[in-house]
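Name: Remorin_C domain-containing protein
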Amino acid sequence: MVELRALTDKSTAVKEDIDKRMESVERAGQEDLDESRVSDARKAKSPDHHDNENISTISKSLVRVHHEMFSVSNRIEEERRKAIRQERNRWDELTGRKRVLLKEEERLKRKEKDLKMNQ
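Structure predicted for Remorin_C domain-containing protein:
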C-alpha cells in the first residue's frame, strides 16, 4: 500500500504539474489573443498611419529634391561665373593680341613709308 500511495502522490504531482503548464499555455494563448486584438485595432487605425507614412516619405523626397535643386543651382552659378571669367580672359587675350597686331601694323607701315621715302 505504501508503494501505491507513493505512486498516487507522484501521479497527483504530475497531474498538478500538467495542469499548471496547461494554465500557463492558456494564459499565453490569451495574451496572444489580446495582442492580436491590439494588432487588429492597429490595423483599423492603419489608414491614418499609412497616410502619415506616405506623407513622411513624400516630405523626405521633397527635402532631397530641394537639396538637389539647390546644389544644381549652385553648380550652374559657378559655371556661369567661370564662363564669364573665361570670356573675360578670352576677351583680354583677344584685345591683347589685337594691340600687338596694331603695333606690328604701325611698325610695318612706318617701315614701308621709310622705304618709299628712301627710294
